[in-house]
Automatic annotation (TrEMBL):
Cystine crosslinks: 386-415
CC cofactor: Ca(2+)
Keywords: Calcium, Disulfide bond, Glycosidase, Hydrolase, Metal-binding
Organism: Stachybotrys elegans
Keyword Transit peptide attached: no
Protein name: alpha-1,2-Mannosidase
Gene Ontology MF annotations: calcium ion binding; mannosyl-oligosaccharide 1,2-alpha-mannosidase activity
Length: 576
């Protein structure tokens, strides 16, 4: 508050400027939509947005822009298993075709009923715009269309992207995280795959807009980019913001700098990385960062820790940034290793489950609450935490840590187990398990203990409850199963994936497309929630498609995937 008051003298001038600006903006906004050129097949045109954020003069300029690393990319250990381990088969080709057909059906439903809206409502067949109204599903689907060989649809979608106007939104503020991972990630990935210039041009326009969000006193963005606040120097880093928001914008911003040669985007997110580095060992649980952080005062006193909602991709991006920078910034390796040690020590657990064989083969992760010197683990997993198997797998490969590779597989299988053991064959959004005392040693099935802990909850043995029993079409479980498959070549993962796919289609299919539904513990006609978020097309179906594809389709040795499953090109070591 006191900081805001000190700005008052400047305010009048800015408010007048703002009024003029908005009038011009609206004027341009309304005229540009009618004046944009018609499109012809094979002719992807670029129509500039009606406001150009690159002309915005920051109130808090950066005095010293850090360049991208100039060291030659290193030759990193292979992520994928030996190509000889991947065997083609007819069954597999049929499964791939089945996934492609489901994608086609979903996309065509969006195209017919919700074109240019953010999402289709898959039961009622309407469009809705929870992400600014910049056609989130369309932008998020571009690279999937390309990878699955929908060339006509890709061209049509690219043409529509060429006419997107970032200044044309009814929202007064933009969600920086969601817009970065879905829109910016989607555009950069589609550009990396297709080299279609219009996609890069729109990515740069959007990058300029998102970059305005960093115009705060300490150059750490808030959760929302509020356009009016931005124009009046009223932006601040948050005092209790999700750690993942400013901390996992780095892949997209770095790739934008790599492609354009302009280091300012990389510089912007690198400043957040240095904050993470500085604070990693100063939290209540050194090695990991709390779920929410006071980014404004740059302190990390909060006492809750999770790998799920609000924090997840902060961790995911550590090994991924290492890969995207060609292994030349060791601080990502150090931060990953220190975080992984704490996660292994405190968050990982085995569940008491009836089948002894499975018990040692699967892990889950829980949340932590630190009180005085006590670290309490809440044995609760979320669908969102399922990414963590893939993260350990990638860390294991890049840093040659066999133990991490094993943990990664066990975590991926834990999610597979939670799918297979629910009545619908699908894991709940949030659930609790009855945990073993430690990750090693005996942990026999104890019917009495389980009945005690479960109480009246109607859940299969091993689960304690399904606290949030919805399935929201989420990708994280198939993500880790896919990554485990590519990293090991073990065909068992394809079987797990196929069972998951069949269960998901069975439970989510609507007359038009596929929908989130209310309760994975109940079979029969499932109650649909009329929601199909863009990650269904961007991630879930892409991972299912890729696991049944030959290993050179989006090889993990060529690409690193952002947290919305958008593949970004990795640098090659033998450039000189
Ligand atoms: C944090 O502590 C770990 C374990 O002691 C250490 O390996 C790591 O380098 C430290 N990180 C930083 C940024 O100082
Ligand atoms: C989680 O499981 C561990 C091991 O069984 C137990 O010590 C701990 O109390 C459990 N946490 C909660 C919140 O019940």
């Amino acid at each position: 508050m006191s900081l805001r008051l000190s700005q008052r003298s400047q305010r009048k001038r800015i408010v007048i400027g703002l009024a003029i600006f908005l009038i011009v903006w609206w004027h341009l906004g309304s005229s540009s939509s009618s004046s944009s050129s018609p499109l012809f097949a094979g002719d992807v045109k670029f129509a500039a947005s009606s406001f150009d954020w690159s002309q915005f003069t920051p109130f808090n300029p950066v005095l010293d822009i850090k360049p991208l690393p100039t060291t030659r990319p290193r030759s990193l250990p292979p992520v994928q298993a030996d190509a000889a381990l991947f065997k083609p088969s007819r069954v597999n080709d049929e499964r791939r075709a089945a996934v492609r057909a489901v994608f086609d059906r979903s996309y065509q439903a969006y195209r017919s009923h919700a074109w240019l809206h953010d999402e289709l409502t898959p039961v009622t067949g309407r469009g809705k715009d929870p992400f600014g109204g910049w056609a989130a599903t369309l932008v998020d689907s571009l690279d999937s269309l390309w990878i699955m060989g929908f060339k006509d649809e890709f061209r049509e979608a690219a043409a529509a992207v060429g006419r997107l106007d970032w200044a044309n939104t009814e929202a007064g503020a933009l969600n920086i995280f969601e817009t970065t991972i879905r829109h910016l990630g989607g555009l950069l990935s589609a550009y990396d795959l297709s080299r279609e210039p219009v996609l890069l041009a729109k990515a740069v326009e959007l990058g300029e807009m998102l970059y305005v969000g960093f115009d705060t006193e300490n150059r750490i963005p808030g959760f929302w980019l509020n356009f009016k606040d931005a124009l009046q120097n009223l932006q601040w880093a948050g005092t209790n913001d999700p750690s993942a928001c400013p901390a996992s914008l780095s892949l997209e911003f770095t790739r934008l700098s790599q492609i354009t040669g302009d280091p300012k985007y990389y510089d912007a997110t690198d400043r957040v990385t240095r904050f993470l580095e500085k604070t990693q060992n100063k939290t209540l649980l050194p090695g990991i960062w709390p779920t929410t952080i006071d980014f404004r005062h740059e302190t990390v006193y909060q006492n809750r820790f999770t790998l799920g909602a609000l924090a997840d991709s902060l961790y995911e991006y550590l090994p991924k940034m290492y890969a995207l920078l060609g292994g030349v910034d060791k601080s990502y390796e150090d931060m990953y290793k220190a975080a992984a040690d704490t996660i292994i020590e405190h968050m990982l657990f085995r569940a008491m489950i009836p089948d002894d064989g499975d018990k040692d083969a699967i892990y889950f992760t829980g949340d932590l609450l630190v009180k005085e010197d006590e670290v309490m683990r809440i044995n609760e997993s979320q669908h969102l935490t399922c990414f963590v198997g893939g993260m350990f797998g990638l860390g294991g490969k890049l840093f040659q840590l066999e133990k991490h590779s094993q943990i990664g597989e066990r975590l991926a299988r834990g999610c597979g187990w939670a799918y297979a053991n629910m009545p619908t064959g699908i894991m709940p959004e949030i659930f609790n398990m009855v945990a073993c005392e430690s990750t090693e040693g005996p942990c026999p099935w104890d019917q009495d203990r389980w009945e005690d802990e479960v109480g009246a909850a109607q859940v299969p043995r091993g689960f304690k409850n399904a606290r949030d029993p919805r399935y929201l079409l989420r990708p994280e479980a198939i993500e880790s199963i896919f990554l485990s498959y590519r990293m090991t070549g073990n065909p068992e993962y394809r079987e797990i994936a196929w069972d998951m796919f069949e269960a998901i289609i069975m439970a989510t299919e609507t007359k038009l497309a596929y929908s989130a539904f209310a309760d994975v513990t109940v079979t029969g006609a499932t109650k649909k929630l009329d929601s199909m978020e863009s990650f269904w097309l961007a991630e879930t179906l892409k991972y299912f498609y890729l696991i049944f594809s030959p290993p050179d389709v989006i090889s993990l040795d060529d690409y690193v995937l952002n947290t919305e499953a958008h593949p970004l090109l990795r640098p090659k070591p033998f450039a000189g």
